[in-house]
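Intended use. Records such as the Protein SULFUR DEFICIENCY-INDUCED 1 entry shown here are meant for training and evaluating sequence-to-structure methods. They are not intended to support clinical decisions.
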Amino acid sequence: MEVIGSIKKKNSSVQEKEKGLFHVFHKVPSGDGPYVRAKHAQLVMKDPEGSIIWFWKSINGGDRVDSALKDMAVVMKQLDRSEEAIQAIKSFRWLCSKQAQESLDNLLLDLFKKCGKVDEQIVLLKQKLRQIYEGKLFNGRPIKIARSHGKKIQVTISQETARVLGNLGWAYMQKGKFMAAEVVLKKAQMIYADSNKACNLAHCLIKQARYDEARYILEDVWRGKYLGSDDTKTKNRVEELLLELVSKQPPPLQNIPGLDVDDGFVNGLEQLISEWARPKSRRLPIFEEISTFRDQLAC
């Protein structure tokens, strides 16, 4: 009897170990709640539609709501149900913790891009700039840990500010507001320069028929002046933009599109750039967060 009991105990131990390895291998959390069932359907059964049903049950039942809402939105995006994902986040994010709000905003931005909702992107990006000024981003910390291509990286406030401004500049370009895009992209480069924003700025200048300025920027990227200049995709994009430069003839100034100014926002940023090198005694009308936070950023 002792031998039989020992064998059963050993088998039980082996089963527990195999169960643990199963969760590790499939990256599925342990337990038996609706969230665990949702992840099992998503990652093990490869049943995204079924996983959404369980994610809904998890949210309604209060089981790991932060993760359930984010994971469900990601699955919906993969199924081309991005509009539904946007509505789900807007409707249920109030159930999520304060720590989850930033990642939900980032997910919303991706969904807005997927759906071509440029105006919504601009509003949300401006909101993120406000959060930077108020110290609400990164939950009040100067650095956060993020993931990039499966690796953990540190992101500073200055890097995040430049990234948000860079995305805002690109959004303005999608609206044809090239003057607005130029000012925002230049500000982003002052804070944290990289080759992607440099190429976007060159593209913006080309759209305004300012070919010489665009060429200088592209040549700097080609020479490796900016972070990421050696990337193959960057090199290919520089070549494409240079070919576009060659193919274009300067149109009359009055025919240049996109010279409309966005509700005082651009005026303030232009003034900030022109006065960047000297101290100011008054606050700018645009985004007080940029002028107030300026001294804390490595510009």
